[in-house]
Amino acid sequence: MSASSYLVRGDDASLVAQEVRALLADVVGDRDRSLVVEEIGGGPGDDINVGAVVDACLTPPFLIDQRVVVVREAGRLLTADVPRLVEVVNDPLPSTVLILVGGGGAVPAALVKAITAAGKVIDVSVNRPGDRKAWLHEHLRHAPVKLEPQAAQLLGQHVGEDLGRVEGLLGALAAAYGPGARISVADLEPYLGEAGTVARYEITDAIDRGDAAAALGVLHRMTEAGGLSAVEVLFSLHRHYANMLALDGATISSGEEAAQQLSVSSAFVGKKALEQSRRLGSARIGHAIELLADADLDVKGASGLPPELVVEILVARLSRQTRQRASTSRR
């Protein structure tokens, strides 16, 4: 049964747009969308006329049995306008469905609370690795084709953080092989295209393992598909080693304590930094900081090398010192 009001929000505009399309298809059904749906707002420069939203929600549909009011960029709503919308959410017309689409800032908390109580909040945020994995699993489960486990794994690895590409890929596979087809790795590979960008932690994870080849592969995806500059990559690497340096020699025994020391909210991040700090030791952490400082100067022109090459050399050196430490520990 559909709700009378929805809020669709997330941190990836393409995923929010996909979710809104799917929601509209479900709510509108086989009705004529041009007669049913009324859109208000849309572009970053458009003002949201709250009076128009309220009037649309409280006006009975004409010649049809339902009206769907879609408000784009709902984060641009003013707190002063919220009470009028909350009244509409709490006492809707049976024939009207209100859909607020996140964007343009944070949706006022009072409106989120009202929709949570009387309607439905659909959050497609994928800023954490677990969120992305769950999103992909859910969408593959309802996909028009069925990917074999290895093909699903390859798809996830290939698109990385660019989950907005998944819908188009699945549509292309359905068009090529037919709805319900079982897709193998060999079936999938011709449709993958360029690899998507990946999360920044993947490069530090690969360096921490001493896997130079994997770290360089991640670096290329970050700078090519992700569009990160050499300076931005250096910033991420510096922050990673600065965390280790801050924990070096500290009498800390848990991820929670490490997180507090680093002023970060995640105990998992704190635990990783603490473990790697102890794994490397003071001398190697100090050497890594020196390598980062030299690379920073080289990126700014000290060596005359292209910035991309400077960062590649840095990543290889950081990975090597981790690998050397691991080899020494096994002896």
Kindly give the count of domains: 3
CATH class of the largest domain: Mainly Alpha
Radius of gyration: 25 Å
**How many angstroms separate the termini?**
64 Å
Q: What is the name of the CATH architecture of the largest domain?
A: Up-down Bundle
Multimerization state:
single chain
Q: Please bin the fraction of helical residues.
A: 55-70%
Overall mean pLDDT stands at: 87
Main sheet attributes: strand count, strand direction, barrel closure: 5 strands, parallel
Instruction: Please give the number of β-strands.
Output: 7
Strand order of the largest sheet: 2-3-4-1-5
Class by helix and strand content? alpha/beta
Describe, in plain words, how this protein is organized in 3D.
- The protein has 331 residues and is an alpha/beta fold.
- It has 3 domains: 5-123, Rossmann fold, CATH 3.40.50; 129-191, Helicase, Ruva Protein, domain 3, CATH 1.10.8; 201-326, Zinc Finger, Delta Prime, domain 3 (Up-down Bundle).
- It is 58% helix and 8% strand.
- It is built from 16 helices and 7 strands.
- It has helices spanning 13-28, 33-36, 50-58, 82-90, 109-118, 129-141, 149-159, 166-177, 185-188, 201-209, 212-223, 230-247, 255-262, 267-280, 282-299, 307-330, and strands at residues 5-9, 37-40, 67-71, 96-101, 120-123, 146-147, 182-183.
- The chain has a 5-stranded parallel beta sheet with strand order 2-3-4-1-5, sandwiched between helices. A two-stranded parallel sheet has the order 6-7.
- Strand 2 (37-40), helix 3 and strand 3 form a beta-alpha-beta unit.
- The longest helix has 24 residues, at 307-330.
- The protein is globular.
- The N and C termini lie far apart (64 Å).
- The model has no long low-confidence stretch (mean pLDDT 87).
